[in-house]
Structure of ABC transporter substrate-binding protein:
Amino acid sequence: MAAAAALALAVTACGGGGGGGDAPADAAAGGEDTIVMGFSQVGAESGWRTANTKSVNDAAAEAGIELKFSDAQQKQENQIKAIRSFIQQRVDVIAFSPVVESGWDTVLMEAKRANIPVILTDRAVDSADTSLYATFLGSDFVEEGKKAGQWLLEQPESSAGPVNIVELQGTTGSAPAIDRQEGFAEVIAGNPNLKVIASQTGDFTRSGGKQVMEAFLKAHPDIDVLYAHNDDMGLGAIEAIEAAGKVPGQDIKIITVDAVKDGMQALADGKINFIVECNPLLGGQLMDLAKKVVAGEQIPPRVVTEETTFDQAAAKEALPTRQY
Ligand code: AHR
C-alpha cells in the first residue's frame, strides 16, 4: 500500500499537478518540471525568524524550486487561509512552520485529500494522526530546555542556596514555548534550591520581553536568574534590567535560546551568561526533503537539527564567522 501511495504521489506531484485529483491540469502553478512549494511562515517576530526566512528563500532559489511564500503575522487563521490557497493553486508540496501546536487536523486532512504532501518545518503539530504530514524537520525543543536547565544546575549558586528564576515564555501554545518550559522544568526539578517564581509569555518578541521583564522587576525585587525562551526576549529584558539600575549577566544571570548574532554579541559582552543554540538554517534540508517527497521517495518521519550551546568565551570565538 505504501509503495502504491508513493507511486501515486510521484505521478501526480510534479509541475503543479500535485495531487489535483479531478482538477484541470491547466490550473497548475509553475512549469512542467518545476517543483512548486507553498510555504507558510509564522511571521517576522525575531532575529531567528528573519534568518530562517532568508534560508528558505535562498535554498529554494538554489534548488530551482518555485516558492510561494506567505507571512502569517503570528496568526493561525492566516496560516490556515494560506494552506487552503496553496491547495487551490495545486502546488506540489506545502511546507509550514505552525504558529501553535493544536488545531491543524481539518486543513491537513484537506491537503491529504488533495494528495499534496505537507512538510512541517521548525515547529511541530500535536495531531494524533501522523499520516497528515510527510515529515517534521526541526530542533528538539525539549532538549533545548534541558540544556538550559543543566547549565543552571551546574552553577555554584545552585548548590549555595535559594535561586529565584523568572521565565519569559515564547508564544502561548507554540511548540517551542511548551517544550522549552517542559525540558527546563524537568531538569531543575532535581534541585529544591531552584524555583521559578514567575513565568509569562513575551511572544518571542523584543518588545514583549522588555514589557514583561519590567513587570517582573516591579513585582519581584529578588530575581537571580532569567530564562528567556529566545534571544530577542532576553535582549528586551536586558533593556528593562538596565533601566531598573541592575547589571544584566551579574545581578541577574541570563539564559536564552537561539544564538542569533545580537544574542551572541550580548553573550560576548557579558550581558547574557549562556545560550542554547536553535539553528534557523533549515532551507537546504527542507528543499532536499521536498524534492524527495515529490519524487515519491521514502523520507524519514523526523529530521532533528544538530545544535550546540555557547558560554561567553565560546561566543567570542564564534562571533566573527557567525552566519546569522
Ligand atoms: O520556532 C523557533 C522559535 O521561534 C525561535 O526560537 C524563536 O526565536 C522564534 O520566534
Notes: The pocket of alpha-L-arabinofuranose is lined by residues 45-46, 48-49, 122-123, 176, 204, 230, 232, 257-258, 278 (CB under 6 Å). The two ends are 43 Å apart (CA to CA). The CA atoms of residues 19 and 115 lie 4 Å apart. The domain at 141-278 is CATH 3.40.50.2300 (Rossmann fold).
